């Protein structure tokens, strides 16, 4: 005991002794019996050769050959003969797109993938800014093409652009449909 501890009252010495006993008990609880086993396992892992894990081959059950009973009938994925013969041709009609025209850059993307991010007036002409999925922003004007359905910009307003698309259906042939791209302020 030190001189200071001899002069301390008995209550302080009792508290110090209890604190020392709890500290010793707490430190003893940190010693885990499984740490030696853990160290042995880690050492074994470190000494095993690396490389690819072993390949487990799974035996697959043998397949049985099945015969398709309806192979002589019409394919459900093709139109009936009557429709295929009397339907419109993809290359005919007043609304058929010009397939010889060089495609514009925004025709690689569907209209759902394109975003209208802004409009502005340049040289007396309204211009729209379109963001594509590849991260580019392209300026377009009325008459430009965009989308995979031969869409052509018909009108540009301050908040939207109107596009006329051409779609092909077997019975009717080429048809026009009007769609719009609108500035969405919530979708940054």
What is this structure, in a nutshell?
The chain is of the alpha+beta class. The chain has helices at 3-7, 10-30, 35-47, 81-86, and strands at 115-122, 125-131, 137-140, 145-146, 151-156, 160-169, 173-182.
Summarize the structure in words.
The chain is α+β, with helices and mostly antiparallel strands and 188 residues long. The protein has a domain at 78-187: SH3 type barrels. Helix content is 24%, strand content 25%. It has four helices and seven strands, in the order ααααβββββββ. The chain has helices spanning 3-7, 10-30, 35-47, 81-86; strands at residues 115-122, 125-131, 137-140, 145-146, 151-156, 160-169, 173-182. A four-stranded antiparallel β-sheet has the order 4-5-6-7, with no helix packed on it. A three-stranded antiparallel β-sheet has the order 1-2-3, with no helix packed on it. The radius of gyration is 39 Å and the shape is elongated. The model has no long low-confidence stretch (mean pLDDT 80).
Offer a few descriptive terms.
alpha+beta, SH3 type barrels, four-stranded antiparallel β-sheet, three-stranded antiparallel β-sheet, elongated, Pilus assembly protein PilP, PilP, signal
